Amino acid sequence: MTTVYRYLTIITTLLLTSGNISAQLNLVPNPDFEAFNGCDSPNFNIPFTTHYESFNFPTVDKWVDPFRTSPNYFNPCFNDKRLKTPSNLFGYQVPHSGVAYAGLGIFFIDTTVSGKIAGNSEYIETKLLKRMEAGHEYYISFYACLADNDFTYSTMALDEIGIAFSDTFVTYMNTTTPWWPKMKADFTNTRDRFISDTTNWTKVEGIYTARGDEQYMVLGYFYEDFESVNFRFVARSEKQYYMSYYYIDDVCITDITDIKTTMSDTVICEYAFPLPLMAPENAAGYIWNTGDSSRSIQADTPGTYWVTSLYDCARTVDSFYISTESCKECIWLPTAFTPNKDGLNDLYRPKIICPVENYLLRIYNRWGNMIFESNNPQTGWNGNVEKWFGDNSTYYYYLTYNGVGSSETRQLKGSFILIR
Q1: 123 Cβ contact list (under 8 Å, min separation 6)
Q2: Among 287, 279, 291, which Cα is nearest to 320's?
């Protein structure tokens, strides 16, 4: 028999594409902070607003300051060298992608007063391109880098930088210092995984299961009080004031609920080759280890096959290991076929490896209607239902036969998929 093992992982990269909203779209608008509406603002803060929908976004597009805490925007379009990338007021850092990024002063303490929080924590907010759906799983990632100016701005490393979601716009005009929102994060970096690298970007990533209707996201550091903050000093000398300042880039939120492969662990006959292997549907592109770039390929020999499916801001990798053993049945039926008139797998029919009689094959659609019947092993189904092309879907077979000279009627039943 031939055993096909499947291993699925989700890897990520930022692949910005345009098009209609689909299941694998990055829901974050302007995720890399590249889009902007002006560089002549009197300051380099991401502006505060109480009305997201009517806001004109004078600097970076689609991002706002929800709490009047003065997060920053860096772009080489500014004339002021303090606001540029890669070198700016807070240090030196090449953007993870493009030329721009955001900056957050996340935590401040005064060592002259025990347990004294010395300043406001900064946050940024945006509206997702569509509401999240209850029970759906979303892949979340963003990149963070601790600014390398430890003279003033980056003397502490934090761990649980994260995101809080809301079904309505979150805003509050705070008038006190210190101040931070009493919100709970829905997704954070792993506790005790301190983001302390000042040279390389650190990816924060994970899976979030939606409550339903979330459409606004606030990014920052969420905590209840001074005692709950988990930090580590990274300054090269003692300071009176300690601060954590982080650059943020390439934010991704994408629905991965419907990313499914058509292959699963299964057992097939050694005579199954060529064996169709299919990648998940609706991807922007595919890369097989064989060099093919189509959704499906034909596996001709045992071994390992893998395919990378490219989505908006994530990639899935499916890996299939195929090994062979002897067959136990005289008849083997494939798990898929591709009636696209390319000369490969255009007909759905069994492979017969020993003489049979009383052969009868019936094929049914998902509603239980019989759409094909044949008592000739050489006659296969061409994928048509009456005069129409059959849908790309799952179909079911029921086959009976006797081995020559045997009175035992063998019954085979199962499912297969049609892919055009």
Answers
A1: 65, 66, 67, 69, 71, 104, 181, 218, 219, 220
A2: 279
Residue 89's alpha-carbon distances to 4, 67, 152, 390, in angstroms, are 55, 22, 10, 63
Tell me the pTM: 0.70
For residue 264, name the pLDDT band (cuts at 50, 70, 90): low
Give 18's pLDDT tier (boundaries 50, 70, 90): very low
Three-state SS sequence of the chain: CEEEEEEEEEECCCCCCCCCCCCCCCCCCCCCCCCECCCCCCCCECCECCCCCCCCCCCECCCEECCCCCCEEECCCCCCHHHCCCEECCEECCCCCCCCEEEEEEEEEECCCCCEECCCCCCEEEECCCCCCCCCEEEEEEEEEECCCCCCCCCEEECCEEEEEECCCCCCCCCCCCCCCCCCCCEECCCCCCCCCCCCCEEEEEEEECCCCCCEEEEEECCCCHHHCCEEECCCCCCCEEEEEEEEEEEEEEECCCCCCCCCCEEECHHHCCEEEECCCCCCEEEECCCCCCCEEEECCCEEEEEEEECCCCEEEEEEEEECCCCCCCEECCCEECCCCCCCCCCECCEECCCEEEEEEEEECCCCCEEEEECCCCCCECCEECCEECCCCEEEEEEEEEECCCCCEEEEEEEEEECC
Structure tokens that stand for 190 in this block: 């792993």
Nearest-angstrom CA–CA distance, 120 and 122:
6
Direct distance between the N- and C-terminal alpha carbons of the chain, in angstroms, rounded to an integer: 27
Locate 138 and state its tokens. 């979303």
Tokens of 301: 């020999």
- In tens, the pLDDT along 278-300 reads 788 778 889 999 999 988 888 88
Tell me how far apart the alpha carbons of residues 92 and 246 are, in angstroms, rounded to a whole number.
12
User: What pLDDT, on the 0 to 100 scale, is given for residue 363?
Assistant: 96
* Residues 336, 278 contacting (CB under 8 angstroms): yes
Mean pLDDT of the chain: 82
pLDDT band at residue 370 using 50, 70 and 90 as cut-offs: very high
Tokens encoding 394 = 């799952």
The pLDDT of 103-108, averaged and rounded, is: 85
